[in-house]
Amino acid sequence: GSEQITKILEADKILTPAHYHLKNGSKRVPTSVDPYHWASTTVAKILCSREYCGDVVNLKTYSTSYKDKKRKKNTVENMVILQDVHEAIIDRSYWEYIQHKQNLHKMRRKSGKQSLFS
User: Looking at residue 29, what is its pLDDT?
Assistant: First the structure.
């Protein structure tokens, strides 16, 4: 899983996203001191994001009023998803496989509803 990928990235001395941005002029300060120490959660987030398989996702959030500064998460049906807009980092078939595996592992209650903690 993502732990194995982190070991490969660290062995190949691949910069973490935060250190990569810092190297390219970002003002954000990375939380980790080691520029090559990848967290498995970072890799898992990359593997779950559509953007890394070449898609552009618009309208992820919305506000109910222009006066309201709080953003709410939009449903997938209301998002605008443009496929294959840019070069993919993750193969689409692999990304779909990951999504399928994650849906299998989501915890369900006895009633059949998804658990609050999954």
Answer: 75
Q: Where are the domains of the chain?
A: 1-48, 50-90
62-69, Cβ contacts within 8 angstroms, sequence gap of 24 or more? none
Residues 43 and 53 sit within 8 Å (Cβ to Cβ): no
Residue 111 has pLDDT above 90, yes or no: no
- The three-state secondary structure class of 88 is coil
One-character DSSP codes across 42-63: HHHHHHH-GGGGT-EEE-SEE-
**Which residues fall within 8 angstroms of residue 6, CB to CB, at 6 or more apart?**
38, 39, 40, 43
Query: Could you report the per-residue pLDDT of 25-60, keeping only the tens digit for each?
Result: 888 777 778 889 999 999 988 888 889 899 999 999
Closest CA relative to residue 3, chosen from 50, 38, 53, 52 = 38
Note the residue count of the chain: 118
pTM above 0.85, yes or no: no
Alpha carbon separation from 3 to 23, 51, 55, 105, 106 (Å, rounded): 25, 21, 25, 17, 19
